[in-house]
Design goal:
Helices cover about 40% and strands about 15% of the residues. With about 350 residues, the protein is an alpha/beta fold. A seven-stranded parallel beta sheet has the order 3-2-1-4-5-6-11, with helices on both faces. It starts with a strand and ends with a helix.
Length: about 350
């Protein structure tokens, strides 16, 4: 198939592209290469794709999804079979300082993707939602049928909005859409603003790591290979209208339209201090911990019920935290040349 991957120079985008190329798809990747974090890491991810034996089926175009005219031209010219939309302004805490970046990328950009799919006969749009849509929910594990009407960050609100916008296009235009609520993804080539990279960098430099909420937090850490397996399997299964959908008791994860939303995670929440311990073990070095209060916009715990996605795709997450962290630390040392 010919597949568009937005955010192809990003963490999940790069790994998804590699998986698609390996199995024989043609991939067009776009990314605006912004400086939310060091663009050199993005350039190096693209270089890693180019080093692979199947890179001849990959083309990269620097483009912003919020650029309406360029996006319209891209869709019209390329005629994609399917679209994997991963581009977004990421980060919960950054949304407190720069809300307009989220409106442009996550709202305007998403409309451009929806319009491109609608007007150019795209068979299936798979897009990144987020576990952050569960906001202040305390019922665990998080299930797709739970209400998600109380976001605690603008980032979360934009992801919830994406799900609503996708449903509208599925209903009005019959566009099959699948939203994936990602739970804390980690692994080689990860983002430098996320905990694994921040912690590893600080520990190696003998600097204290900030441990928020005094370590009383849990995250459903999910290794990148498990995430990508779920993404690619989802692309292959196009949703159809749910014949059993009950409008008297509507389930927000399904619809009378060709629309689905799934959690994608490991379904095994890990204490933050346990995750830090795994990094310490992989590095052979103990962390100096600076215990901090809870951050605005953050949540105490995330825990994915992934049973619906597993039933839908047959994919089950399998990489344990110790193994995943070791892979990440090995990559980190090689990439940054740390002894």
């Amino acid at each position: 198939m010919k597949i568009l991957v937005t955010g192809a120079a990003g963490f999940i985008g790069m790994h998804t592209t590699l998986k698609l190329l390996k199995r024989g798809d043609e991939v067009v990747g776009i990314d605006n290469m912004n400086d939310y974090y060091d663009p050199q890491l993005k350039r190096d991810r693209l270089a890693e794709i180019d080093r692979q034996p199947h890179s001849g089926r990959f083309r990269f175009i620097q483009m912003d999804v919020a650029d309406t005219s360029s996006m319209n031209a891209l869709f019209k010219q390329e005629r994609f079979d399917r679209v994997i939309h991963l581009a977004a302004q990421a980060g919960v805490r950054y949304s407190l300082q720069n809300p307009h970046a989220y409106a442009q990328s996550n709202l305007v950009g998403f409309v451009n993707v929806l319009e491109g799919c609608r007007h150019n006969q795209v068979q299936h749009l798979v897009y990144a939602s987020s576990s952050s849509v569960y906001g202040g929910n305390v019922k665990m594990p998080f299930a797709e049928s739970d209400p998600v009407d109380h976001p605690v960050s603008l980032y979360a609100a934009t992801k919830k909005a994406n799900e609503l916008m996708a449903h509208t296009y599925s209903h009005l235009y019959g566009l099959p859409t699948t939203g994936l609520r990602f739970f804390t993804v980690y692994g080689p080539w990860g983002r430098p603003d996320m905990a694994p990279m921040l912690f590893t960098k600080a520990i190696l430099a003998d600097e204290a790591i900030k441990v928020f909420n005094h370590g009383q937090m849990k995250r459903d850490f999910t290794y990148i290979d498990d995430i990508v397996a779920g993404v690619v399997a989802t692309v292959d299964r196009i949703p159809e209208p749910d014949a059993g959908f009950d409008r008297q008791q509507p389930n927000s994860a399904s619809s009378w339209a060709p629309y689905r939303v799934f959690n994608i995670g490991h379904s095994e929440p890990v204490e933050l201090l346990t995750f830090i311990q795994a990094i310490e073990q992989a590095l052979g070095k103990e962390a100096v911990k600076d215990m901090q209060p809870m951050q605005p916009g953050d949540v105490v715990a995330t825990y994915a019920d992934t049973s619906r996605l597993e039933a839908w795709t047959g994919v089950h997450p399998s990489v344990p935290i110790e193994e995943g962290v070791q892979h990440f630390v090995d990559w980190y040392k090689a990439y940054f040349h740390k002894a």
